[in-house]
Amino acid sequence: MDGKLYGIGVGPGDPELLTIKALRLIKECDVIAVPGRSPQDTVAYKIVDGIYPEIEKKELLGIHMPMTKDKAVLKTSHEKGADRLCEELDRGKNVAFLTLGDPTIYSTYIYLHEEVKRKGYPVEIVSGIPSFCAAAAKLNMSIAMGAQQLHIIPAVYQVKEGLELSGTKVLMKAGRRLSEVKEQLETEQKLSDVKGQPKDCTEQVFMVENCGMEEERICRGAEQMPETAGYYTLVIVKEEEWL
User: Fold this and answer.
1) Do residues 201 and 109 share a domain?
2) Which structural domain, as residue segments, surrounds residue 146?
3) Domain count, the chain
4) Side-chain half-sphere of 93: how many Cα atoms within 13 Å?
5) For helices 71-90 and 109-118, what crossing angle results, to 10°?
6) Which of 67, 69, 100, 226 is most buried, taking the most CB atoms under 10 A from its CB?
7) Is residue 220 helix, strand or coil?
8) Strands 95-99 and 31-35
9) DSSP label at 143?
10) Span 205-228, pLDDT tens digits
11) Residue after which a domain boundary falls, among 126, 146, 179
């Protein structure tokens, strides 16, 4: 009988944000897979280790996921990764693949999930707390209220277009393009000041780096943001609350 693949969201960084269901399945599964050649060095592994040290006794499987936009390279890596997971499933092993945040939001895992599912194996996604929800909680504020729209934007692909949207904008993985984000926000603020925009149309800007981790950093206001930041950085651009 084939094993089952679980794509498990481990949350943004704080081990205490790991869900009860996620922890139960991690304990029950035979194999723990993570995105990286060396499992113990991955952020996802360290998050779980912070609440469940016994993970070190599990059979660990590292799946290399290259950081590139080359579609051919990505396709090959996804196929190889899925094949390696299927080898464990063919042995009747249940596999828990750990992924940061939630598996359904810009997760590299989802490509493996779809490939394994296409091959006919049983699969299941286990939700985790998304980084932008954890960041908003850390800031003690809502992300959106009333009729406000919420836009989740991959900053590695688009910045200017995303920031022109109304409502709350969340720029994911913004670290490498932080200078561009900062410049665009400061330009928009200057234009807003010139136009004399009313207070209820102004925007609040927050940057959260490594949310829930030891290296966590929070900046309030575009002018306080650095020119660069780490990979796990998001920016929340929020209109003044209104109903």
Assistant:
1) no
2) 131-239
3) 2
4) 19
5) 60
6) 100
7) strand
8) parallel
9) S
10) 999 999 999 999 999 999 899 998
11) 126
CA-to-CA distance for 109 and 34, rounded, in angstroms?
9
Which range, of 42-56, 76-90, 136-150, 229-243, averages the lowest pLDDT?
229-243
117 with 140, same domain: the answer is: no
- Number of helices (H) and strands (E), helices first, in the chain? 7, 10
Tokens representing 63?
Answer: 């799946």
Judged against a pLDDT cut of 60, whether residue 30 lies above it is answered with yes
Instruction: Provide the phi-psi class of 28: left if phi over 0, else alpha when psi is between -120 and 50, else beta.
Output: alpha
Model pLDDT, residue 190: 65
Are residues 193 and 232 part of one domain?
yes
Both 145 and 158 in a single domain?
A: yes
Same domain, 120 and 10: yes
Residue that finishes a domain, picked among 126, 146, 175: 126
Give the CA distances from residue 112 to residues 11, 97, 98, 101, 213, in Å, rounded to whole numbers and listed in that order.
Answer: 19, 10, 12, 16, 27
Q: What is the mean pLDDT of residues 174-200?
A: 72
Residues with Cβ within 8 Å of residue 150, at least 6 apart in sequence = 143, 144, 167, 168, 170
Q: Given the structure tokens 């900062």, which residue do they identify?
A: 182
Three-state DSSP state, 99: strand
Does the reported pTM lie above 0.70?
yes
Which CATH number does the domain housing residue 82 bear? Answer: 3.40.1010.10
Q: What's the token pair of residue 167?
A: 């409502």
- Tell me how crowded residue 229 is: count the other CB atoms within 10 A of its CB: 23
